[in-house]
Design brief:
The structure is a homodimer of 137-residue chains.
Chain A: H1 6-11, E1 19-22, E2 26-30, E3 40-44, H2 57-77, E4 81-88, E5 101-106, E6 113-115, H3 123-136
């Protein structure tokens, strides 16, 4: 636990939250600034900032909890779709530096929009980038 | 394998792709319509549409691959941040109905933007929604 972390304090019960699920590895509660009704956060109990830092069972535990909660949100609210996302780094929209996945129920005309530039990569650039990444894995 | 599925055909090697990783459970390649340099897709070999449908080792296998590939993208390209997301359903932006996670390297001023409405929920609505969801899990 990190004493300065809002999410660690929520998990510890020091700060109230609208909890929807918890187990040995993960904790889930409603986002207090929702972008949709039912916007839920699922996070590992262990304080890490990035997905790459999760070790061993904490990773599969988080995946299992994410799946359970996503299925629960679908059953409970019957949305037309779901966005499930992790933002890593301030530039990507991460506000609290404790890894968390957002589950956002989606409906037609809800105003949520992912605005993306058109990125044109040359054919050889695809080859170069895929090689760069695959070499590091 | 679903013979009508573009991603199943890519996994089977019937359609070329810029692969970055593969193992028993998962497959990763560059998105051919990238929203950033290094935009990578990670998917289960098994053809399912939604996260809730993945069973047993296929789930932990996908999580492990997603973590490895995300770490690889970070090492290879050193972006300022990452967005990792799954879109489920057409309304949420899912184009190919084979579950896949996007990994998008982020940099300041890259033009990627998640536009979200302000949703104001009454205090009692938070309680109601969290109860609704938690009951189904």
């Amino acid at each position: 636990m990190s004493v300065d972390c809002l999410f660690c304090r929520i998990i510890a019960g020091e700060i109230p939250s609208y909890n929807v699920y918890e187990d040995e590895f993960a904790f889930a509660f409603l986002d207090i600034n929702p972008i949709a009704r039912g916007h839920t956060l699922v996070l590992p109990r262990v304080h890490v900032t990035k997905l790459a830092e999760l070790e061993g069972e904490a990773l599969s535990g988080l995946a299992a909890a994410l799946q359970r909660v996503a299925a629960g949100v679908e059953k409970a609210l019957e949305p037309e779709g779901l966005n499930i996302f992790i933002n890593q780094g301030e530039v990507a929209g991460q506000v609290i530096p404790h890894l968390h996945a957002h589950i956002v129920p989606r409906e037609k005309g809800d105003g949520v929009r992912f605005e993306t530039p058109v990125v044109k990569l040359a054919e050889e650039e695809f080859g170069k980038v895929s090689e760069l990444i695959s070499k590091t894995i």
